[in-house]
Every structure is written in C-alpha cells, then in structure tokens.
C-alpha cells in the first residue's frame, strides 16, 4: 500500500529547491484560506450533532497523522494505534485527574509516554517486515487491552474512569467558555477550537518531519532499506524513531478523545479502533497530511450523512423491525461501505489526490496554454 | 598521504556455521586509482563488497579474520554509517535506487550522513551533477520510472552526494546497452580524475580492465590473480575466461 502513495504535489514538498515556482507561491495561500475556513466552521455550523462529528474527526486526524508517518512515510505496517491511544489517555487521566495537573502538562506527557511505549516496542518491530510486523502489532493490541482490564487502579477496570478535563482559565471546556454570565463559546465551539489547535500543531510537526532529513530517511527505508543502509541511514534507529513518533501522535489523540468524552473505558480501545484509523489513512491518502484530516472527516461524517439521507429513502424504516427488512442503520452501514470502495476504486491515492485533481488539471491546462 | 584509500588484509568471511565465502583476501586500492575486481558469479565479489561497506550482517555473514582499513583507519567493526562518514560510498548492484522518491530526493538521501546545510547540499549536488549531466532534466521524476541506464547514473550520483574518497561500484554495466556502458565508463573515469579512488566490481572485464590501473581476480572466495590491469588484459587465461577471446586468438605477452 505504500507503493503509490504520494501525489506529485507531495513529492515536491520534500525536495526544497526543486519545486516549480507556481507551487511555491500558491501553497501558503491555500493553507491560510483553509485555516480561516476551519476557524469559521463553528460560526457557520449550528448543528451540535455535526459539530460533534467534526470534533471527533479533528481528534482522530491527530492519530491518523501518526499512521501517515509510520506507514505512509516509513512503510512499517502497524495495527497498534489502539494500544498506544490508551497509553496517552491513561497518562492524561493519571496526571490530570489523580494529580490535578493542567492540560498543558498532561497533553505533552501523553505524547511522551506513548512515544516511549512505541520506542520500547520498536526492538521487536524492527526485526519483522510486512505481514509479520502487522500481526505483531496486532498482538500488542490484545496485550494492551488485557492490561487495561486488570490494571484497575489506573483504568477503573471495565467500569472505566473519569478522564482528564481540559481547563482553561479555570473553566472546563466541556461547559463551554464563559465571560462572566455570558457564554462566549458553546461546548462544541470551544472544543472545536481546542482540537483544531492541537491538530494544527500536529500537522506542522508532520510537515516539518516530511521535509526534513529524517522524513527522507523514513521514505528511503520504506523504499529500500538495504540501499538506505548503504547511504549511511541507520535503518534500525530510523524505524524506531518512526514508531515512537507515530505512537506519540496516537497518545495525544487518545488523551484528547478521552478528555472530550469525559470518560474512558478499556472496551473502547479495541482492535476495531486500529482498523478505523488505518482505513482513515488509506481513504484520505496514505502518507499525506491533508489526507489525514480528509480521511478522518469522511470516516466520521459519512455514516451520519448516510443516516440522514436514508430518512428520505422510501421503504426504509427508521428503527429495527422484528420481521427484518431494510432499516436506516443497516442501509447507512451498506452505503458507508460502498462509499469506501468507491473512493479506493476511483482514486487509490485517496481523497487527498481526489481533492487536488481539479487544481492539478487547471495547472496543467495553464502550463500547456502558456507554451 | 601514503596510506592507500582502501586496504583489505587477510580477510575471511563465512555465512552461517559452515559456508566459507572468502579466504585470506588481500586487496588494495591506492589513492586516486581505479582498481577492478573480476570473477565469475558466486566467486564472492558481492561478499567482499559487503565486508567493505559493512553490510555483511544484513545477509548473515561474519568476518572471521582480517581487517578492512579506510584511509589508514581500521573500520572492520564500524557500522555502515560510520564508514560512509569516513569517506566510503557505494553504488549497489542492480541499481537499488529508491523507486518512490524523485531523483532529487534520491540524491539528497545520498548526502544523509553529511548533514549538509542548504548551500553545502547545493554544492554537493552540483558536483555530482557535473559528472552526470543527464540527471539534470530528471530531477522531478520518480526514480522507479527511469530507464536502466538512468537508474545506474542515479545510483552513482547518490553515492557521490556524500563526497566520498573511496567509491565502490558494483556491476555498474550490468544489463545496460553497449552505448550506455560507454557513457558509464566515461563517467567513472571522470570521477577518478577528480581524485576519487574507485573499486570497480565487474563482469564486463574488457570495460573494467580498459580503465583500471590494477586488477584482482577472485575465484571460489580466493584471489587467484592480481596485477597491473594491462598485464591482466594481455593474459591468455584471463582473456579466455573473461574477455570472450579464445587463448589462440588472444595475442599476448605472457606477463
């Protein structure tokens, strides 16, 4: 899956000095426009339900960026996201709730502890490749879920525990943001901005990694690790770094998710969660930064959209019936599955490439007419 | 300055418990010269290259005795990256470029150990490209889409990006059309003229002996012949075995 991931745009990103002038000029404007749009979303979207979906997508996108790094850039199969997210979540809960630390302590700490977790797993991971590595990371998810079930002092056992709150100026964001008696931001608006800020930092970090010497080392190891060794790239250390960074991103995503939900249970860190994240990465466009958000948005919003659409489809009942038949949840699942297949069928490089297509098309047209 | 660029002394290598791949290899690459290593398939040429570049362990090989010295320093137990930092670079057999990276990125990866600043990277790039002008127009292309000859040039260019004193070239003419082989040959000479010492492993003995000063012949893990390239070229036995000339045709002063 790493063979045909990067679009012409993304490869140009990592080769400073060799970009076409047109790309150099437009990139920052596109990013600025996107940031403005993201900041405007809470003002434009009035539905709490859709804001909630958006916040889940922003939080998930942080974890997907981690997958983009370890799988997309470094080419190492990892199904272990569901093992590293809770490390972040429980680190946050332990520091934020049990020790009363503020979010600017527990959030970075969740990255560091999960990152260390990833680095500790790396010695096993670097000995394996491809499918074997995938299965090994799978094992990690099972081991981790067992640990969360039995480590009741930390996790509260299967009943779960309260998660670390995000408190800014003495206000829990889950209550919205108040100035005196007037609410400035609702819960959803406040959380949207908070999650977006964290995602933005994660994106900038990923972008810098991609363009750096380290990012190039990741891709060299992904393409041909023997040749990477020949040019003097330390293969084992590079893979370890990829796992550590990816796990750190997963840790942040996990602690954010727990904080937003307000509660953490061991059952939520199942294998399905890992699969969801890989699906988001692939649908969005493996190895791409914008693809992380696009994939997460698609994955979180599509079921809701389909659900909403299915109310307009005749012969579909809203609730489950005793005699079977087509129900809205059933239809929405089928359509969601179909949507994934369609994306992958018509644009294997994911939504990122799909979104860029018109721009790419316009540019080649312009260049052709210029000649 | 007097020590050779590369010196291999009494080197023995084995794979696994039993299979001995190399026995008592002595080989030297003087500074600024091209030395060629000839030998049939399975003679141990690749093993010797791996022992020099430090990648033996990847293939399960172990050095049982002997030394590898780079510019007078013992690097026998150094990691590959440390050897590259000391001035060793290698263009692997079968090109082995990074197929999903562009030519520019492949070249940049070649300078990994040098931690270049922008200006230094540009300088190294210009130097490498001065030997390989063909790559100029291919910078944005993915390496996987290049022709065999272009990939070979990229592999050499990538090796040059670390600004090596010793360059190992593993079968650079393998699978290339005669005309391209000629180009590659000129590139190798060009690089040598800049002062880089080259160890050239080749099946194409005619090409290798035409540009090398010294040659070694490896068979079944041992050096069976060595000497000035001109002498080897004139040797009937070598001519018959490696140059595709029968002993009677090979007019030769027996060295």
Automatic annotation (TrEMBL), chain A:
It comes from the Bacteria. It is found in: Cell membrane. InterPro entries: ABC_transp_permease (IPR001851), LivM-like (IPR043428). Residues 1-10 have a biased composition (Polar residues). It is a multi-pass membrane protein. CDD domains: TM_PBP1_LivM_like. One of its GO terms (molecular function) is branched-chain amino acid transmembrane transporter activity. It holds the Pfam family BPD_transp_2. The chain crosses the membrane at residues 27-45, 51-70, 77-97, 103-125, 132-151, 190-209, 242-265, 277-299. Residues 1-23 are annotated as: Disordered. Keywords: Cell membrane, Membrane, Transmembrane, Transmembrane helix. Its main location: membrane. GO terms for cellular component: plasma membrane. This is Branched-chain amino acid ABC transporter permease.
From TrEMBL, chain B:
PROSITE patterns: ABC_TRANSPORTER_1 (PS00211), ABC_TRANSPORTER_2 (PS50893). GO terms for molecular function: ATP binding; ATP hydrolysis activity; branched-chain amino acid transmembrane transporter activity. GO terms for biological process: L-amino acid transport. Residues 6-245 form the ABC transporter domain. CDD domains: ABC_TM1139_LivF_branched (cd03224). Keywords: Amino-acid transport, ATP-binding, Nucleotide-binding, Transport. The keyword Nucleotide-binding applies. Belongs to the ABC transporter superfamily. This is ATP-binding cassette domain-containing protein.
